[in-house]
Amino acid sequence: MQNCWELTSYSVEKLQEDINNKKIIVPPFQRGLVWESDKKSALITTIKKGFPFGSILIYVDKNGKMQIVDGLQRCTTIFEFLNKPSQFFDEQDIDDSVIRQIFDLMEYGNADSLRENFCEDIKNTLTTWVKESHQTMQAVKHMQYFDFAMKLATKYPILSTPEKLKKVVDFVQPMLDKYIEICDFILTTKIPVIKLMGSEDDLPEIFERINKPGSSLTKYQIYNATWSGVYVKITDKKLFDIINKVCNRYDKMVESYYEIKDYNSTELNRTKTLNIFDLCFGFGKKLCNEYPYLFGKSTDAAKVDSVGFSLINACLGYKVSDMDKLHMHIKKLGSNEFINSFLLKIIDCVDEVDRLLGVVTTFKGNKRSIKNIRVNHTEMQIISIISFMFIQKYVNIIRDENTEEIKNRTYNLEQISNAWNVNKLLFKKNCLKIYIMDCLNERWKGSGDKKLNSIIVSNSYYFRDISWEDFEKTLDLWNQNLINERREEQKPANPKEGEKILLNIIYVNELRAADHLGADNFDIEHLATKGLMKAQLEKINRGKDDRDRLKLPISAFGNLCYLIDADNRSKGKKTIYQDTTYLKGKSLEDIEKKFTFTTKKDMEWLDTDVWDSETFKELYFEFINKRYIKMKEKIKGYLFRTY
To answer: What's the pLDDT tens digit per position in 241-276?
Structure first.
């Protein structure tokens, strides 16, 4: 038999020691450190209760070197506990009867409302004290319970007498002693370990078989294991930063606790050769870094983003369901130089789409920094536009005459197709319009797999000519649905993707270049301000049952505008016409022309108290409908200008 295994056990302390001394390392196909805090807490809770928590699978090679094949997340979580046990201190470590005893010392009586609030605060104070004052296992083992009693007494001086301080110590000591015992128990816990001996070539398959049945891995993590034997050399310097992204991922894993088998950043930068998984991973990171307004900013160096995989697969002309064969499809492209050129052509298309959509994606609106970017579309929607352009330019898809099934794909990167040359002006004219209509219709809500598949093989979706009549129908339906859905009184909805996209379209044409490039940022403001609307509705609805209360779409699109943030916030809940301080040194005509598209008369209905709900509703709807018409004309003026 080629492979065999034996069952043994390691203490947590011994396992950490062997990993720190590099006796146990991590194979390169491991998925990295991906557990969220809730999963980590659940594991520690399981161990605290003495429940079984699974085994670790370690491969032992002929030289005695060991690799963790399965159990990386559990090991890492346990080591985090050993290094900072107090971070896992939670409610299950607190005895509620002890908290009630401390509350009783405060002599507030037996009022349930007081008891609940004060007991919660005592618990929070205890948790904060444990976490902030005991960062290491050594600190936990030497807890000074009197310190907690003193901390509590600073909040509640009634506990500061010597007698009460001693009682607080007496109450918490058994509870915290038990917590220390649990920490000791975890330190000496025996972890079941399966040691596997045999062919190292079988490790990726073993890794896949272990994880696939339980669906504990994402498909990208499975690809990491199964694609590891196919390599591509990066030959173009424009793509060298892909290697940096891959190094950053492995370096983060190394910093955590582990050594990665066969990983050496110096050697990787010298050979510039990556397996297909790392190529797609690094390509996705590059795209997120250079085009954050299309793909979102990727802040976690080790997290596997899907964009690189999905975009390459789509540009190759394959369905989402064919992703598992992506490594073979990339390799079939041919030489390293051709694969490099293929990726560069994708980037050219990304760059062109970025410019086409920039009016709605990069207009700064109420963004404060690149760290806070939130894209207004789905990843699949953007990939559909980019891959459509790429395929129309460089891919010839050959179909079966009878079944329409795709028989073959050929790629010509040297010459742009005639189909693209004929239709490129139509694409540029209508791409933004189709993008906006799809966003308003929420066409890409959900996974988007089937929609992307149909567009990949379509010759028409982004070559359609969109008329104003078509666009207006979509816009009016979206606006009416928004009004119908939003019945607001005290909690108006925040602007969503559709409102932000349309506001950007409106204001990109209204504001001067100096406004776009200047230091000012903009808030999305309600002209009939939320404060005034809520106050008026509170008066109108006073004493009414819920079914009779007037609720209005305060956050209706017709009520929204951009205003310079510093000025907007200084005026509070007043309108621009009510705040005389706001208008000092400003041109009201300029504000009306560039930002509000209103006159003072449009807003006078807010200056008088209207107690009749029907009258107030009528006045508000008259205002938002009138302004919506103005906004619609500005959208038309920009999107349907002469090309």
So the answer is: 999 999 998 888 777 666 777 788 899 999 999 999
Tokens 């299950």 label which residue?
92
Q: With CA atoms as reference, report the closest residue to 279 among 322, 219, 318, 336.
A: 336
CB 101 within 8 A of CB 173: no
Rounded Cα gap, residues 462 and 255, in angstroms: 46
DSSP string over 308-375 = HHHHHHHHTT--GGGGGGHHHHHHTT-SHHHHHHHHHHHHHHHHHHHHHHHHHHT--TT---GGG---
Q: Is 377 helix (H, G, I), strand (E, B) or coil?
A: coil
Strand partners, 67: 25, 59
Both tokens of 491, joined, read 């909690």
Residues with Cβ within 8 Å of 476's Cβ and at least 6 positions away in sequence, in order, are none
Whether residue 642 has pLDDT greater than 90: no
DSSP state string for 130-164 = HHHH--SHHHHHT--HHHHHHHHHHH-GGG-SHHH
**Residue of 450 and 220 predicted with greater confidence:** 450
> Residues near 47 by Cβ (< 8 Å), separated by ≥ 6?
53, 78, 186, 189
Q: Which two tokens stand for residue 154?
A: 């600073």
Q: pTM of the entire structure? A: 0.71
Give buried/exposed letters for 538-556 (b at 16+ CB in 10 A, else e).
eebbeeeeeeebbebbbbb
Token match 């980019």: residue? 386
Q: Phi, psi at residue 478, to the nearest 5°? A: -60, -45
**Residues 465, 426 contacting (CB under 8 angstroms):** yes
* Phi and psi angles of residue 11, each rounded to the nearest 5 degrees, phi first: -75, 155
Question: Could you count the other beta carbons within 10 Å of the beta carbon of residue 558?
Answer: 23
| Domains in the chain, CATH or no CATH each | 4-88+187-205 (3.90.1530.10), 91-184 (no CATH), 227-466 (no CATH), 470-639 (no CATH)
